[in-house]
Amino acid sequence: MLINILSIVIGIVLVLWGADRLTDGSVAVAERLGIPQIVIGLTIVAMGTSMPEFCSSLVSALHHQPGMAVGNVVGSNIFNALLIVGAAAVVAPISILRSSVKKDIPFALVASMLLVLLCGFDGKIQRYDAAILLVFFAIFMYMTLREAKTGSAEQPSAEGQTKPMSRLMAAVWIVVGLACLIGGSTVFVNGASELASALGVDPTIIGLTIVAMGTSLPELATSVVSATKGNSGIAIGNVLGSNVFNILFILGVTGVISPLDIQGITPVDLSLLVVSMVLLWLFSYTKLRIERWEGAVLIAVFAGYMTMLIVNA
User: CB-based burial of residue 214 (10 Å sphere; 0-12 exposed, 13-18 middle, 19+ buried)?
Assistant: First the structure.
């Protein structure tokens, strides 16, 4: 069991470090190609922070652990919406853009409801289900990039603030980052699977808890650091982008490669996935702001959910 726990820790470290390096290298290449910073942030950086979930879910599916693959995404999204936003709001109340209330949060809610609907038919994410998710992801990216173009003039330029990375170093970081993501994900999933077997726990529970929280560390770090610096509004964009990406892209690509059986994912898990986004929307809609007490409510709901999972396990 000690070796399995050590494998999980090593896997998490490799995955997080690899995602960071891959993001740095990709951003450097994009900047050299003249891609606007706002587009980089909404695409490459958002995908980079969700790479741990993507690699872990993909490796889980290929290793015939579909419950862990889906549990990772469902658990990560619940973790993001309740604990990460809750913690950031407790540190500093979060101001919400009107566009987020009108478009981003509703789209994240629609993505959650779509997943529940597709899973409700036969308890599986078939290849045609995954294709539907990818179509919705393409729609979201089109809407986001179109909005970014219209608002790009308002974004501050970072030109001259940092020295551009060389082409060679950018290529090295991309290759190293991908290698660490693949290797770390394999070690991580193998350790989590073996730990589940040793404890006699359903791998889905491990996916909903240990794997989900481990792969959500980039989002947690980004949001909490932003809140401590007085930029807590970044937290909501980080969470919404990650949640949409997790459901539509990660489960879409993973489901196309290998159809997923959602064994172990209960109606309670799927219901809380939707409820967490509804709470986020309601708290944001009232005053375009998430207050400290509302953040505390989100944390309390997450704590209750984790307690229920541990007791049932």
Answer: buried
Dist CA 68 CA 215 (whole Å): 12
CA distance 298 to 89: 10
CA atoms within 13 A on the CB side of 105: 23
Secondary structure class of 261 (helix, strand, coil) = strand
**Burial level of 253, CB count in 10 A (0-12/13-18/19+)?**
middle
- For 2-151+166-312, give the CATH class: mainly alpha
**Which H/E stretch holds residue 213?**
helix 212-215
CB burial string 56-80: b at 16+ within 10 A, e below = bbbbbbebebbbbbbbbbbbbbbbb
Reading the block at residue 158, the tokens are: 């970072």
Which pLDDT tens digits describe the chain residue by residue (313 residues)?
788 888 878 887 887 787 677 767 777 777 777 765 545 655 666 676 677 778 778 877 877 777 778 888 898 899 889 998 898 888 888 887 777 788 888 999 999 999 999 887 778 899 999 999 999 999 988 887 777 666 544 444 444 445 677 888 888 887 888 788 778 777 877 787 787 778 777 777 877 887 777 767 666 766 666 666 665 555 576 678 788 888 999 999 999 988 888 777 888 999 999 999 999 999 988 888 889 999 999 999 999 999 998 888 6
Dmax over CA atoms of the chain, in Å, equals: 55
Residue 260 β-bridge partners: 125
